Amino acid sequence: MMSIKPVCGTCVAAGLLAALLVFAETAVAEGFGGVNEMVLNQPLRVETGWARSFVQHGKPVRKRELEKFDAYCSVEVTTVARVGDDIVVEPGAFSVTRIQHKHIPGGVFGGLLNLEDDPGPVEPEVDIYLESPRQPGVLRARCVKWESDAAFARRVTLDEVREAFGNVASFR
To answer: DSSP assignment of 129-148, as one string?
Structure first.
């Protein structure tokens, strides 16, 4: 005879949260059809302590200089720049191997961790995975547009990605 064992309530809650995050986190990108290549038109320097270089309104910027509620992008590499390192992503063409929207639900975390009714900002982002035989250490471009309230959250669009990069990079 099979016996039914009691289930840990915390385990069930953790499993449900994990399932929600997996479901909400990654989806195939909509609105980016036909994008097969990113062409970087100028070098991007990775600052010490980072593994990415930020771009907004068509120019490289430091993270602390970002206008938080305007779309911005970063080009990410696989190595963190240490003091004395000079990591530069050189101009060139990168094949786009995959594009995914990632949606970090502020409501899930906000509801659990926030004592207020406001779930906090939602960060819809798109990951554009890149590949280049000349620069194998370049991982992806990640583009984000913060919204002030979860009720107004939406995914960053291809037009916003293009505006963020400006002449720094183009997509074909």
So the answer is: EEE-SS-TTEEEEEEE---S
Q: Flag whether pLDDT at 40 surpasses 90.
A: yes
Q: Are residues 105 and 24 in contact, defined by beta-carbon separation less than 8 angstroms?
A: yes
Number of C-alpha atoms within 13 angstroms, CB side, residue 155?
19
Model-level pTM? 0.73
Number of domains comprising the chain: 1
Residues 17-31: tens digit of each pLDDT:
444 444 344 445 667
Q: Is the residue at 67 inside a domain?
A: yes
Closest CA to 74 of 168, 4, 155: 168
More confident residue, 166 or 149: 166
133 domain-assigned: yes
For residues 139 and 163, give the distance between their C-alpha atoms in angstroms, rounded to a whole number. Answer: 21
Q: Which two tokens stand for residue 140?
A: 């992806």
